[in-house]
Amino acid sequence: xxxxxxxxxxxxxxxxxxxxxxxxxxxxxxxxxxxxxxxxxxxxxxxxxxxxxxxxxxxxxxxxxxxxxxxxxxxxxxxxxxxxxxxxxxxxxxxxxxxxxxxxxxxxxxxxxxxxxxxxxxxxxxxxxxxxxxxxxxxxxxxxxxxxxxxxxxxxxxxxxxxxxxxxxxxxxxxxxxxxxxxxxxxxxxxxxxxx
Length: 196
What we know:
Blueprint: E1 2-7, E2 10-15, E3 18-23, H1 25-31, E4 36-39, E5 43-45, E6 48-50, H2 53-57, H3 68-71, H4 78-87, H5 92-104, E7 108-112, H6 118-127, E8 130-132, E9 163-166, H7 171-177, E10 182-187, E11 190-194
Parallel strand pairs: 1-4, 6-7, 7-8
Antiparallel strand pairs: 1-2, 2-3, 5-9, 9-10, 10-11
């Protein structure tokens, strides 16, 4: 099934897990009238690479909302996360899956760094996250919206349907406001995150 993702600055036609066409909405819609249309505010990007994959998925505990009374709702890092995982190693898998959801909600389609645990690898691979390199010296503190933001190479016809849409008017505003402006993340043609 063809899906046409349309934004203010361009559109992408997706066929399965592949980019079938790029261009203005009007042209793509006219050429493919039976395509399902998804309209998004903002700009279409190839998505982000977050260089902190191991830190976010293996060294941070992402509480289940049902644990809010015990652990709160924000990610827990450092010694406290190590204590949680040491006390109950089975928490790593569900935490990593929730961490992947947080990455997707920030337009992340690829992560850097080497994941060592099967639970984190399974969570990342299950979502279809790509794996990339990271610089020897990381730019700042661990973050779901790291600075500087690392955009992947441009989308290409015939390439993977992997991208994110941010509700900002320009890339400059994306850099200024950060990746929490994400409204949609698509990996392998699947809409894995949709902002409310």
